[in-house]
């Protein structure tokens, strides 16, 4: 090799640089491969996103190894004791080298851009006849409505079929994410955003809100169950009941009450608002009418009475959001539960 | 602190001390005592008066009163401390002395606590103030890391947790990184370009005093009913418009910090353009000056946008203007477009001055000229231009116009090219150099390695598909800290250590400096590297509670973060002790060529006893007989005469 890459680069130092670079690359590769960085994909879109991830990772390892090799070599070879008063060679630049390190990164990022753009386009394709699910976010719960008009607090999706999620929000911005499906989309009030997912394996995975949406943000979780498509057809046709139990429980779950309140019967463990298993005591303390009146008032006008130690944080939207029949069922359910606990 | 920066030359005799009531009418803290209540009353009178005249009920309405008070009370403070005295005298026709230097320079520590027109005093005021807010912001971080050590709720309510994360970010960004660079620039730039001071010293003094106002406003907001600002530092509408009233403190604090930034940037621009020493052409400016020049352009062009975004959400709340209220026809995503049109360039506002510092340190400590000086300057300009075309990469999952995604991805990718040029040029500068591993150099190398990691994770996030997976997770938290902590904060530390002997006239302890570096470097990586993993695996950011499978790794991160926090104690001790008792520093301990090192440490009150004549480039290490500037030259030609 007779080409001088830059002033002062000789064959011996090139070999040393390459060795350091290979060691750095090997360490990075080991870190990349031995730690399970990504969740196991459960969707076609996730597979493609993982491909882009690995594509970028290979390039990053190469770039990092080059930088690490040069940096380590310099620290190792060019260090001088503090009393050394000499100066280095007055090199001001090297045009060819500068062109190379402008051009190569430009090519690398362009290639990542092209791969990304292709994957982005493919991940937006929902095919001819996708399953459509309406997703509505609110503080601090998700609701999912299917073509049969039924609404649930959790998501069920068919394996192997394109699904188009129509995502919106009732109050502030939320964001829908299933790590195993990789796809993510903000739920923006006043706007319908679509997201395509094509599940490839059955199982139950978390649905997470990733956009700070207020006090209950960290507990705004639900789950998605991916089932074989025959089972999904049955689920839609049967109009499967959203919850086994009293109708009020379904209202409780649909409106996400459990994100903030504890209610053992519903398996809810929220801690932002008062414990609803203590409802009878709370009503007695408040003195705002009977247990039933107090319960109803606290839902439709939550600011009317604030329990000591809690803040006036409950949304005022439930008054318009819960249909009167549902509200009656919810109040009845909570009152019965409270009486049973007394 | 008492021995700090007692300048050698006394130019003007101090005014005679005032006695009796006159002490309360002269600019200073005693006048603040009555101007603040006065302006509080004025604010109250304005709001209640208008409401009473208009017949609005109730006359006494907390939110509008608070909003107006957050303007008038700080104004009262500034009037009291003397920020407007000169202009008020001028405007009212009283006698003014244009070159009155009575408020210039520092003879005792008291001079650091008043309006001071000396850019060196202001620089020190900035740096010390920002380090104070750095410590407060760091304490907030350790508080919420304590909460995050285990899943579930332990120490703080969700509201308090959200306040802590919001104020941690707001303090670190608006009260530490951005103004710390402004402070270092303030101290160094006039010296580096051979000027006696900044172009507008009185404006400079005023810009500094806006800063503590903004900081204490953010902290005071935490005492507001319902809790402090809690919508994150991004303050997304419509969430922030419906938060408890503490959010108003955030909206207004950003205005004060932003105004401070803009005024300083204008000052930098005019100073750099008009006050360079004879012979200092643009191509002979040190890269730190170039970096602050481009940064100031960014600040002047972009900062009004964040001011706008915060006024809009404030108007939504107070005046019901419905910019972002979708039920009333507002456009929710409009907020994010305006906000990020500032806040992405802000990332470069927080990085370019650091690039400048690193160029100085690496060249001097490697005893070699900067490799590819002109390309280094041009890549700053390229980042400036490209920086304005990438904002929507923060909104890839927001549901904005679909066509915007790919172009914004491409520009975000392309901005890696000028950044790469800088990294490779620093590596080439060190090649065959004589490397001195002083504390600033260690921080420079720490920056170089950490910023490469932050830059590479930035490439992942620029790619739309990967960003869709990683957006709003701990991967983002890891990335932003590799860029802003491993990047910006390391460069600030490098700069503080590098110019410490110049600013204080004393030398810091190298041993403690190196200890500080290694503790910070290791603590930093242990804290933030695992966040890449939990983010990709499925932990969202800004959560007080999380899935139990992340418990062990979060406990590890929390413990590491306490170690990282503790490393700051070494820094503070080193700074305080060296400032008071450190060995007296030479004028030029680093054997640097740039102008600030050619005067005494600390420099004379007016910087140069004679104006230097710049005759060459600032980094000509190893070039026999090369000079950057000569003193005592015959009367020079004006700049640009050739």
How would you characterize this protein structure?
The complex is a heterodimer of chains A (342) and B (642). Chain A has 342 residues and is α+β, with helices and mostly antiparallel strands. Chain A has 9 helices and 12 strands. Chain A starts with 10 loop residues before the first helix and ends with a helix. Chain B has 642 residues and is mainly alpha-helical. In chain B, strands 1-2 form a two-stranded antiparallel sheet. In chain B, α7 packs antiparallel against α8 and α14 runs antiparallel to α15. In chain B, 60% of the residues are buried. Chains A and B meet through α2, α3, β7 and β9 of A and α6, α12, α13, α14 and α15 of B.
List keywords for this structure.
A: alpha+beta; five-stranded mixed sheet; 12 strands; B: 642 residues; mainly alpha; two-stranded antiparallel ribbon; globular; disordered N terminus
Give the total of beta strands of chain A: 12
Portion of residues within helices of chain B: 55-70%
First-to-last CA distance of chain A: 89 Å
Q: Any low-confidence stretches of chain A, pLDDT <50, length ≥5?
A: 1-5
Q: Could you state the order of secondary-structure elements of chain A as H and E?
A: HHHEEEEEEEEEEHHEEHHHH
The assembly state of the depicted protein chains is heterodimer
Radius of gyration of chain A: 29 Å
Round the mean pLDDT of chain A to the nearest integer and report it: 88
What is the strand and helix layout of this fold?
The complex is a heterodimer of chains A (342) and B (642).
Chain A (H helix, E strand, L loop, with lengths): L10 H24 L9 H34 L17 H29 L7 E8 L2 E5 L5 E2 L2 E4 L4 E7 L4 E4 L6 E4 L5 E5 L5 E7 L11 E7 L1 H9 L9 H8 L7 E2 L4 E2 L9 H8 L4 H10 L17 H4 L2 H18 L1
Parallel strand pairs in A: 1-5, 4-10
Antiparallel strand pairs in A: 1-2, 2-3, 5-8, 6-7, 6-9, 9-10, 11-12
Helix pairs in contact in A: 1-2, 2-3, 5-9, 7-9
Chain B lengths: L21 H4 L3 H26 L7 H20 L3 H7 L27 H30 L9 H35 L8 H20 L25 H29 L12 H32 L13 H18 L2 H15 L6 H15 L17 H10 L1 H15 L8 H24 L1 H7 L3 H31 L5 H28 L13 H31 L31 E2 L14 E2 L12
Antiparallel strand pairs in B: 1-2
Helix pairs in contact in B: 2-3, 3-8, 5-6, 5-7, 5-19, 6-7, 6-8, 6-17, 7-8, 8-9, 9-10, 9-11, 9-12, 11-14, 11-15, 11-17, 12-14, 14-15, 15-17, 15-18, 17-18, 18-19
